[in-house]
Design brief:
heterodimer, A: 339 residues, mainly alpha, two-stranded antiparallel sheet, 2 strands, B: 177 residues, alpha+beta, Alpha-Beta Plaits, three-stranded antiparallel beta sheet, 23% helix, elongated
């Protein structure tokens, strides 16, 4: 039996399947809520109501949107490459959902006499898993843009991919500071190491760099020139309609949830509550979800506030400012912790 | 070179570039100021008026759909069919055909009355010139602006439709509001 990854402990296969279904179900149920929450909050920031006609306070809006997109005609430009055109949204959404597996929603609990960790899996490589999957998610964007057979989609995909790889380096380096302080790569280990003080206080620079790089990673404002909803049509997903468009939309929001989950776990203390309150085990997922909710509110707040960065400003910011800052942060952390 | 002909090379004098500390303060300070501004919008509340449940109150001089008037005491129409309003209308959308008042059929207070009085509301520009031109105060601009209809021929309002007392659906703006 090949040991593929070091796991903290093994649960039986049926528990893992149930956990996968539960996590997937919860996040997919939360996703439409986040979509309508973003639209309403964006409206409030701009001095207007969000959507408020569809259901009570507009809460059925995502249902109306999904139905609208589902009944649209699935078309494909004749100059596109058919197989890649269809696979690209799938790659995006699969990698985004697969990254949900390592976000820890709680500690190891005893449910019905079985030890269950409230997360998908707790590999010893932890955060590296997310970066590997986000590296694969570039394929979704690149293939989507190139296989559309349109020059402008291709250009948008190229710029999007360049933006993603530029900011991924800073994102990773900002996390290494936390890894040095915690001493472990596994995410549950990092949460346990924050029992004294959550890491966003000593690692404030790393936290800010991670949040900034995450805006670029998820193509959110102010780094959203790839989609630029008011100016371009859609960059790499211009030629997509109907359910494929929904797949890209879901992939973007799921990426946002994943990044919020990583930020919560690594910097904001995961399921730990402040002031040393120790709630019973089943409260932990709600604490994590509440913190992720706060991070997502911050994402939406920044989207409502900042203007979009131009492409050359974006690239120079990523390489000339953020990367040296992340390296400096790493250097100082290493000197303080190890030296 | 004179200011009117800067030549081929123009030297632009810029402010000195911000150092690292000033640059970092500018980035974070201005970002935080922007965040505070948008949060202030949330606290202020939305400024949207939820039409059709709420409607913007109109001023008393608002030029909406026209109304023809009658005398209160005698019930006779004020309009005598002089068609000064049709002459004044820039969009040429009023059609007046006058007829003689007979002793049996006395409609208006003068010698003639308007037998046919039609305003084509799809051509009307709601300028109010007809109201200014009328010497008898027979036609005024009311406050109704909800005039959508399904066919163009239904938008030609006849005298009867203009005469009848309108349902006031638009709130009037009170003094000092």
């Amino acid at each position: 039996m090949i040991a593929l990854a070091n796991v903290a402990f093994y649960e039986p296969w049926w528990v893992q399947i149930i956990k996968a279904i539960v996590i997937f179900g919860v996040i997919f149920a939360v996703l439409p809520i986040i979509i309508v929450y973003e639209r309403k909050l964006l409206g409030r920031f701009q001095g207007r109501y969000g959507p408020n006609r569809v259901g009570p306070y507009g809460l059925m809006q995502p249902l109306a949107e999904i139905v609208k997109f589902a009944v649209k005609e699935p078309f494909r430009p004749t100059t596109s490459v058919a197989s890649l055109f269809r696979i690209a949204p799938m790659i995006g959404i699969v990698t985004a959902v697969a990254s949900l597996a390592i976000i820890p929603f709680g500690d190891v609990q005893h449910i019905f006499g079985q030890e269950v960790g409230l997360y998908g899996i707790d590999v010893s490589i932890g955060v590296l898993y997310v970066f590997a999957l986000s590296g694969i998610s570039f394929y979704g964007i690149m293939l989507g843009g190139w296989a559309s057979g349109s020059k402008y989609s291709f250009l948008g995909a190229m710029r999007g991919a360049a933006q993603l790889i530029s900011y991924e380096v800073s994102q990773g380096l900002s996390l290494v500071g936390v890894l040095i302080t915690a001493g472990t790569l596994s995410l549950t280990g990092i949460v346990h190491a924050q029992a004294g003080m959550w890491y966003f206080i000593p690692q404030i620079v790393g936290f800010l760099i991670f949040m900034t790089a995450s805006f670029a990673e998820t193509n959110r404002a102010p780094f959203d020139l790839v989609e630029a909803d008011a100016e371009l049509v859609g960059g790499y997903f211009t030629e997509y309609g109907g359910t494929a468009f929904v797949a890209y939309l879901f992939a973007e929001y799921t990426n946002m949830i994943v990044v919020a989950g990583i930020a919560t776990t690594v910097f904001l203390g995961g399921w730990l509550m402040p002031f040393g309150i120790h709630p019973p085990g089943w409260v932990d997922p709600f604490v994590v979800l509440a913190k992720m909710f706060l991070v997502i509110t911050f994402f939406i707040w920044v989207r409502a506030t900042l203007p979009r960065l131009r492409y050359d400003q974006l690239m120079s910011f990523g390489w000339k400012i953020l990367l040296p800052l992340a390296t400096l942060n790493l250097l100082v952390t290493a000197i303080i912790v190890v030296g | 070179m004179s200011p009117y002909d800067p030549g081929d090379v123009v030297e632009v004098i810029r402010a000195p570039a911000a150092g690292p500390v000033a640059g970092a303060y500018r980035v974070f300070g201005e970002t935080l100021r922007g965040l505070k501004t948008t949060f202030a919008r949330v606290v202020e509340g939305p400024v949207t008026i939820q039409y059709p449940e709420e409607k913007t109150p109109v001023y008393p001089r608002f030029r909406g759909r026209h109304k023809l008037h009658k005398f209160e005491d005698t019930g006779l129409e004020k309009c005598v069919g002089c068609s000064l309003c049709a002459a004044a209308c820039p969009a040429d959308c009023i059609r007046v055909v006058a007829a003689e008042n007979t002793p049996e059929n006395r409609v208006s207070a003068g010698e003639r009355y308007a037998a046919v009085y039609e305003i084509n509301l799809s051509r009307c520009i709601f300028c109010g010139y007809c109201e200014i031109a009328c010497p008898f105060d027979a036609i005024t601009m009311g406050h109704d602006y909800e005039l959508s209809d399904y066919t163009r021929s239904d938008l030609i309002f006849t005298k009867e439709m203009l005469l009848e007392v309108a349902v006031e659906r638009t709130p009037l703006r009170m003094e000092g509001e």
